[in-house]
Structures are given as structure tokens and as C-alpha cells.
Amino acid sequence: MADDARHRGDAPQQPAGAAPAEPAAPRADEPPTIQIDQLREEIEAARDRELRALAELDNYRKRIARQLDEERRYAGLPLMRDMLPVLDNLKRAVDAAEKTHDAASLVEGVKLVLKQFYSVLERHHCLPIESLHGPFDPNVHQAVLQQPSEQVPANTVLHEVLPGFCLHDRVVRPSQVVVSTGAREWQEAAPAEEGANKGSQDGNSEK
To answer: How far apart are CA 93 and CA 189, in angstroms?
Structure first.
């Protein structure tokens, strides 16, 4: 009977393969010093986890900042690589013209280099703005002169002084253009009509 009582008083055996039990919370009947020590250990562990997380976050921020700085610093590297062959060909054209003293070959060489230069810009999504004989758009055009025209209607680009370019959908440089003011007779008729109206008003006032 005594043996049965001892067996009944033993703690139950944990099944094999079961997860380890959670650390027991401080018991109310434990001495206060033991409870304080356990709380201190838990606080130190939480503080250590917090410091590790903050350090990892700081390292991540520094790594991202370095990557962004490198991307900004070397963003123009692909463009520079594509521009160097253009520079090489331009130098070859000048060297060949100096040796042969042939102006026609120089002009032809420069035309080829100019074509290559435009292809490089197009490869990097920098395209010329279509302006000639189109409606004047202040978002992409800069009017440098207004000029009457019998063939081109008013508020239409008559001439392109300097071509403009867009990078994707952003204007790199607006096109400098001459804008048509329409046919000349309409401009001359307007002041004459204003003068007639003024004369009529003056006659009425004298009466």
C-alpha cells in the first residue's frame, strides 16, 4: 500500500517526443529574491533581442544608402559607354579631313557621326520633340518669334529654330520655334476696323 501511495504521489511522466514545457512562471510561494532574479533575466533577454533588432535595422539602412549612392553615382555609365564610340568616330573624321584636306569627306563623316549620335539618344529613350507644322504647345515649345503666314494657320509652329528633346515623358529641353500668326490681311483688317469704330463713336459723341 505504501508503494502505491508513493507511485500516486509522483509527477506524471511526459510522453516521448512531446515539446518541452514552457518555463514556469514565478510561483507565489517562491522567495521574493528568486522571483526578482527571474524577472531580471527576462528583462535582460528582451533588451538583448531589442538591441540586436536595432543593430540589424541600422545595418540594413546603411546598406541601402550605399546602394542608392552607387546607383546615383554611376547612373550615367551606360550612356557614357554608348557615347564613347561617337566621340571616336568624330575624331576619326577630323583626323581624316586634316590628312586629305577634303571638305566633302569631312561633311560626310560628320553626318554619319550625327546619325550615330541620334541613335544613341534614341537607345536611351531621349527622343526629339515633333514641332514643325504642329499646334503650338507651351509645355514643349518655346516661342522665340511670331510671324504671319499665308499657308500656315495661326498658333501653329512655322519654323523650328532649335530642336527640343524628351526623356521618356519629361522635357529635357523645349523646342525653340517660330509661331504663325495667320494670314496678313486679317491682321491689317483688324486695325482698320478698330479705326472705323473709333471714328463712328467720335461722331456720335459730337452729336
So the answer is: 55
